[in-house]
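Following up on my earlier thread - several people asked me to post the actual chain instead of describing it. Fair enough. Here it is, all 268 residues.
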Amino acid sequence: MPFVTSRGTNLHYETVGSGPAILMVHGFTNHGLVWAEQIADLLYASYQVILVDLAGHGLSQPAAQKLTVPEMAQDMIALLNHLKVERAAVCGLSLGGMIAQIMAADFSRRVGPIVVANSCADCTAPETVKEIDSWVGLFEQPDGPVKRLQTVWPRMLNEAFRSSPTGAAFLASWTRIVARIPGSSFANVARGLREFNSTDRLRNVRTPCLVISSEFDKLFPPAMCKRVSDLIVNSLFTVIDGGSHLSSLDSPKAFNDLLLGFIKDQRW
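Reply from S.P.:
Thanks for posting it. Predicted structure:
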């Protein structure tokens, strides 16, 4: 089981395949293998797929103090250094999309095309901070990570996926994983999220970018996602019909077609 150390924190990762590298960065409270629906298509398209558990998530070391998005972006560069990958495409969803934005802005020489899915450019608005604070409150309760998952589950995926056997199996697996992680770890990541605002950084990004939104994303609706695209000069914006926040899970064919259709035309 491979690990890399960044900022004194041990991060779990996996790599599969060979070819141009694409770093897949998961969302808040999730884990690297959440990209299971994307791996096969990327492998058959001859890419090296890098999967990572962000600090405070999955099998990586819990976050013992507030953890910011720029710090997690630094972790991704440390992982690329460890793997001797000079330049990688980056696909990130939600929190992962925020990390992809910072990587493109602050580490442009290391980043090829980016795909920012179901994400936003600013978490500092009062209504967003209020929601994040409610998550912190849940995480700090006994069995907090499981309680928070139960609370947000109906908002994360469309009804068809949630009512399917695949959805039930994923929820059971996700529940087992978050139950093993201290609530304080997720709370510390959430505290860093409250500070995230990439607006000024994105104005200078020239990296080719695809921004994916979803019709029924209640956490980051299409208008919020489009703001990312509006700020990046060389970007495209699209909406997945019928998708919800975790579009890579509940709308995998549409998501994969968009991802592969975008990156196949890029060089890095």
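The chain has a mean pLDDT of 97. That should answer part of your original question.
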